[in-house]
Amino acid sequence: MASPVHNLLVLLLFFLSVPCSNSKLSVDYYSKTCPQFASIMAQIVSDKQIASPTTAAGVLRLFFHDCMVEGCDGSLLITSTSFNRAERDAEIDQSIPGDAFDLVTRAKTALELQCPGVVSCSDILATAARNLVTMVGGPYYHVRLGRKDGLVSNASLVQGNIAQPTMAMSDIISLFDSKGFSVQEMVALVGAHTIGFSHCKEFSHRLFNFSKTSKTDPAYYPKYAEGLMKLCANYTKDPTMSAYNDVMTPGKFDNMYYKNLQRGLGLLATDQALSVDRRTKPFVDLFAANETAFFEAFAHAMEKVSIYKIKKGKMGEVRRRCDQFNAAKND
């Protein structure tokens, strides 16, 4: 009669022999199942960015907001139903441009034609974000693949997981720390504001009736504040009014964002706070002086973000459509 120890060893050897490729991420995850993955993504991303130059910033924001809420699982791509208010309808996500979602849809459609049911929407989003950063001048970094798409998307989960433009720096640092990111990594990730824009309502409190002693935030460079006041004069009537996050090189991924902060050209209150807070200022100064240091820190932080709380195996699925769960088609 076999001993309990022998039985345990046999069981252990059985489990070790079971393939676990589904649970491992790798840069060549689709090399056999969808060898055209990289070339299809490169073509779709390039075409979309050329047609709509603001796509890069939109996709980067979409990717980051998706990852910060329950991990990088494509939950922000889901559309709401009469039974569920999805993440993308949370207030902070409603301003993510449609071009970002459109790119994911286009890529998914093309990939489904070549490799049906193989490539996850979360892998598409992570790869698109990296490709676009590189395309507009930023650093290349490796994206490991094999994520599964999440099974939950709820607007109520967003609050408290994404930094708001009016948050205190201590709260932002605590938020990133709770997700395993250092102050240096946080400052590097915020450098994504080197591209893209923000709506006037997100910084209007710095322009109109800021305090009893100053109409505008004195941290603004005066001429910059003057220009923003003219730009946003009618923002309450037209909520789509916006300004570039980086007024100097808005379409180029570079370290100008940090140089702007040193000159009083930080658009959001949280941007400007980075340049004066003793915990963040040293990294702002470093990245302003050394673009290579910024690129290296950003690439490292983005690799880390891209695997945050990913779903593997039965914890997720490969959606047939990125904007709805597979189960929805069976209802």
UniProtKB/TrEMBL annotation:
| Highest taxon above the source species | Eukaryota
Cofactors, names only: Ca(2+); heme b
Output this protein's name. Answer: Peroxidase
* Catalytic residues (UniProt): 65
Residue positions annotated to bind Ca(2+) 1 are 66, 69, 71, 73, 75, 87
Organism in which the protein naturally occurs: Salix udensis
Q: Where is this site: Transition state stabilizer?
A: 61
Q: Which SUPFAM superfamilies would you find in this protein's record?
A: Heme-dependent peroxidases
Question: Which residues does the record give as Ca(2+) 2 binding sites?
Answer: 194, 246, 249, 254
Secretion signal span: 1-23
| Assigned protein family | Belongs to the peroxidase family. Ascorbate peroxidase subfamily.
Query: Where's the Plant heme peroxidase family profile domain?
Result: 24-326
Could you tell me what the cofactor note in this record states? Binds 2 calcium ions per subunit. Binds 1 heme b (iron(II)-protoporphyrin IX) group per subunit.
Supply the EC number(s): 1.11.1.7
Which keywords does the record carry? Calcium, Disulfide bond, Heme, Hydrogen peroxide, Iron, Metal-binding, Oxidoreductase, Peroxidase, Secreted, Signal
Function text: Removal of H(2)O(2), oxidation of toxic reductants, biosynthesis and degradation of lignin, suberization, auxin catabolism, response to environmental stresses such as wounding, pathogen attack and oxidative stress. These functions might be dependent on each isozyme/isoform in each plant tissue.
Tell me a GO biological process for this protein: hydrogen peroxide catabolic process
Reaction(s) catalysed by this chain, per the record, are:
2 a phenolic donor + H2O2 = 2 a phenolic radical donor + 2 H2O
